[in-house]
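Q: I'm building a small set of examples for a reading group on sequence design. Run inverse folding on the following structure and report the sequence directly after it, with nothing in between.
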């Protein structure tokens, strides 16, 4: 599995090119490192934390910023198996974060408290998928 931790410039530009005034759901699929990989000068660099522990730090510190911008976790799941897809893509964390709009997401990632928290995510994550989606009406069928 290739490490996808942060968006590249083209991905971030594509995100910013989409409408900004509608609610968005961000599907998060995350696989942790066995051992957290903090920068050498970070206070937790030699703490011996696991990726899961570093991600818990990220959640604890970024959660208040998510709430401040009006976002919330609307679904969380526990990975069991992949029925269709690459068999090497197992996920340690799976959830959907809902934001009132793209402005809220951009405000979150620009917030100084979030920017301090994201180092934990970067230390924790081996690979991830962050997929922006538009919430559609739900019903009993596929249409």
């Amino acid at each position: 599995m290739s490490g996808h931790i942060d968006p590249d410039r083209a991905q971030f530009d594509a995100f910013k090119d989409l409408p900004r005034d509608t609610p968005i759901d961000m599907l998060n699929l995350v696989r942790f490192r066995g051992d957290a990989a903090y920068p050498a000068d970070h206070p937790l660099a030699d703490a011996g934390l696991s990726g899961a522990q570093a991600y818990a730090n990220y959640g604890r510190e970024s959660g208040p910023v998510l709430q401040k911008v009006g976002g919330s976790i609307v679904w969380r799941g526990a990975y069991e198996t992949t029925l269709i897809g690459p068999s090497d893509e197992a996920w340690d964390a799976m959830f959907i974060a809902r934001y009132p709009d793209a402005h809220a997401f951009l405000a979150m990632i620009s917030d100084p408290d979030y920017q301090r928290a994201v180092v934990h995510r970067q230390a924790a994550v081996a690979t991830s998928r962050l997929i922006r989606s538009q919430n559609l009406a739900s019903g009993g069928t596929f249409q």
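Residues 30-133 form a domain with the Alpha-Beta Plaits fold (CATH 3.30.70.100).
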